């Protein structure tokens, strides 16, 4: 319990200061190494993508409800769709933030790993460590490529959602809703593609975490 409290305090203070190197050093002093941080941050990125999947699907459902609106309070239906769009934007921002944090700790971890390899005197152990480092870097590079590809699919979807919301804001009537119905099929396809890419990223994240934990 005391160790957890120490980690929480260090995290709060040093992340607020923005000094990552000091943060990693302080965390290591309480037994929380860069590899552990890497595992946690990949897990966080994975979780954020799962949440984004759910949020984009929810936004699609609300937009569909708006487009299929038949009587009742049209403004209320619009407000719900708009709230889901805004929540989708927040979810996308969280995904990007967590991926960036993975990149930050990865750079620090690999730099430290390379430096420490040079301190190993026995050649066979040094070669084994170098091989493991290269293998981990290859897996990481593939993971980041997949994460960024999924991340990149969010922006055009959000742009389309925003366009539709702004258009309806100025023209909230049955005719305006009919005008954007043609774009809905494309939005459905794009969100399905996003979810598919995120599923790949989530699966690779799980494999990467297992490989890091197995190397402890």
Automatic annotation (TrEMBL):
Coiled-coil portions: 42-98
The name this protein goes by in its record: DUF2959 domain-containing protein
Keyword Signal carried by entry: yes
Short name of any one Pfam family annotated for the protein: DUF2959
Organism in which the protein naturally occurs: Shewanella algidipiscicola
InterPro entries: DUF2959 (IPR021342), S2_sf_CoV (IPR043473)
Signal peptide extent: 1-22
Keywords, ordered alphabetically: Coiled coil, Signal
């Amino acid at each position: 319990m005391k160790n957890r409290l120490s980690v929480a305090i260090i995290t709060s203070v040093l992340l607020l200061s923005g000094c990552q190197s000091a943060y990693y050093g302080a965390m290591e002093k309480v037994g929380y190494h860069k590899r552990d941080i890497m595992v946690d941050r990949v897990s966080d990125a994975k979780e954020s993508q799962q949440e984004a999947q759910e949020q984009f699907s929810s936004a699609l459902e609300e937009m569909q409800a708006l487009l299929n609106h038949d009587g009742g309070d049209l403004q209320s239906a619009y407000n719900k769709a708009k709230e889901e769009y805004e929540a989708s934007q927040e979810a996308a921002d969280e995904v990007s933030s967590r991926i960036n944090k993975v990149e930050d700790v990865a750079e620090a971890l690999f730099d430290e790993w390379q430096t420490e390899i040079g301190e190993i005197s026995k050649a066979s152990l040094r070669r084994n460590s170098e091989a493991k480092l290269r293998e981990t870097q290859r897996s990481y590079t593939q993971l980041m490529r997949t994460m960024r590809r999924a991340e990149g699919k969010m922006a055009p979807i959000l742009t389309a959602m925003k366009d539709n919301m702004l258009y309806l804001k100025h023209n909230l009537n049955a005719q305006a809703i009919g005008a954007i119905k043609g774009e809905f099929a494309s939005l459905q396809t794009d969100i399905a593609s996003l979810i598919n890419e995120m599923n790949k990223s989530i699966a690779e994240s799980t494999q990467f975490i297992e490989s890091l934990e197995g190397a402890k």
